[in-house]
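Input chain follows. Return structure tokens only.
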Amino acid sequence: MPEIGEVARIVHYIRQHLIGKTLAVVKAQHDENVFGKVGTSAAEFEKALKGKKILDAKQQGKYFWMVMSSPPHPLMHFGMAGWFKFRDIETAYYRPDKPSDSSEWPPKYWKFTFTTAEEPQVEAAFVDFRRFARIRLVDCEADNIRNVSPLVENGPDPVVDKDVLTETWLTEKLQSKRIPVKALLLDQANISGIGNWVGDEILYDAHIHPEQYSNTLSPPQITQLHTSLHHICSTAVSLLAESARFPETWLFKHRWGKGKKDSPNQLPNGEKIVFLTVGGRTSAVVPSVQKKTGPVSRDVDGGEEDIDKKPKRGRKRAANEEDEEKPKPKKRGAKVAADADDVASAAVTPPPEPEPKPKASSSRKKRNGVKTETPAPTADDDAPEEEPKPTATKQNQNQKTSAAKPNGDAKPMPKKKIAAGKAAAAEDVGGQRRSKRVSGRG
């Protein structure tokens, strides 16, 4: 991803070839990611820039913009792989393995192109094959661009805002957070422009482990971090991110061997380079130089990445204890037992000799996975717990239901009365009920 130095390189080329030029031709092809996600369209971009003069180009971290003769002004971010090209002018900050065909114009993956009116004409294009770049229009006065979104949400630029990013400011920022120092540097809301390789270079130069928590750095470490931050960023910008001109002592010169065959992954003096994931990015670390002086989010021992793959017991135990504290949902068997207890408390007179009956509710409790102890025969036996038998009549079912679950404040019928009613029904075999049953069959 283009970082503070690479963006400074493009600002340099815009100032060199476009300042004072009028845009005679502006073409844009709409990309919903590049334009649409920031509330702009290709048509709006063309209309806003055509016929206007470019007065200046400026930068804040990874953002850059062109100051036009009148608002709105185009504000751009390269994302992961965006770039700004000029026809017949080489702007790349590295030599690709397979050189592209410079005669092809507009270049592949272009998002917008424009041609100046003045002679000699200059043609430029914004390209991005991964579509993570962002192009928007900022409708405000040029001097106020840094006070509106998205720039206002970003931290100070280490080169442009040296008077803001002081050692005192950095100390307060580091001590206000408890996160790995590398993650703090990568967060654009804290400091603008620092990306992966710049962050690693700063920490290597400062002899600070990238995973050490920011609020554990000592005052001498913070002083050195402040010095290294300004030194690395200023050097990268002044050299326009041209890596061939970087000092040989920089980690940048030796960090790109990860995953490559026969790559030593070490410095010229033999010190080993290891790779960690910090702040979601792969970080190059020299453990012999970047010593741990305080708590870190993960350890590096003997130059190798030490990742504990076992789950943290404390966290798991805490989760289990939390689960145990949560009330478990009642199951059907438990609900029936609870109803029986309610009936028992409402009963008045226990039966003289409760007849043994099948433990349907007990077996049902087992089927539902609830272990309960069957109490000794008491008054709760007048609330039958078993399910009605298939041969039972609808009238009997209603009787049992009303006995087990009384309505409102009404007390359930004592078992003596139920038994008496059953006996009377058994003796009355030749009377009116018998005649009704016989007549019903006819």
